Please model this.
Amino acid sequence: MRGFGMKEVGKTAWLEKEKPVAGPLDAILRPIAVAPCSSDTHILHGGGGRRENLILGHEAVGEIVEAGDLVKDFKPGDIAIVPATTPNWLAPGSQSGKCNAHDEGARKSFKFLSVKDGVFAEYFHVNQADANLAHLPDDVSAEAALMVVDMMSTGFHGVELAGVEFGDTVVVIGIGPVGLMSVAGARLKGAGRIIVVGTRPNCVRIAREYGATDVISYKEGDIVSQVMKMTGRGSDRTIIAGGNKDTFAQAVAMTRETGVIANVNFFDARDNLTMSSLEWGLGMANKDIRGGFCPGGRLRMEKLLKLIQYGRIDPTLIISHRFNGFDKIEDAFNLMDRKEPDLIKPVVLIDPPYDRR
Model:
């Protein structure tokens, strides 16, 4: 089979690989809609360590072409959404009652790009299909569902980690696709004031549509000072959805005592994160610092899909570029890698007729 990925760090290529084989609990799918992500480009440029001959991609809606003998709820021809995180549900880490993203170690539930090829292929493998796939509802488009598998799930996880409550003042740092989903999630959770940090006009516009009440820009001065001037005491909850190694210290500084700092940003392995002990109240300000990887599994996908089905959110607002056809995966990936000024999220519809809404 054919797939798009990386020959080595820094070098993309179309690769020829053997078609994957399904175990008794697994499924083989062909993609009908995929989306490149900054995590894919991060891997390409060595952020995840050495990788060779790896097919990229971890966001997909697909058609099942083969189901293992023990798969009960999915059959060939079914259209399923594929969460970016697909835990091994037999591992203790998936059953801890906390986050299933760490089944056999830190982030080990992220199978694509780590222990196996990704979804930018003519066929791809999903482990434990009954637990890791969700049926695409008739009233949800493929591209809307595609935004659920990572962008919406990760952005909402930032809100979950932050513990947003009614009336909270929330700051979201970084309003790319994940940050925009954090804005939407914070509004759904009952946040009062939602302050976003971002500069791109199209992202600012959509942030306001999703519920942002205030916008600040790092180009207009120190973002901590701007937040403190706006709020007096700082934010109740701060969600890091973008930025660099310095963003961590800024998030701690702008969060009030007893507040929460929640990170869903992918820092680089070469980063050292530091902060002022004074800004953490000398360790006694009861500021919680939490960082987490996007959970996975069928139940989470089905719950997030309900928010689309019942009109609570339209995640397609974050789609800025649409491509048609399998061969366009390369163009969409390169666009994501270049980070064009008008880019938010590109998608590739391999089978446009499945975009049914």
Notes: The chain has two domains: 2-152+294-354, 156-291.
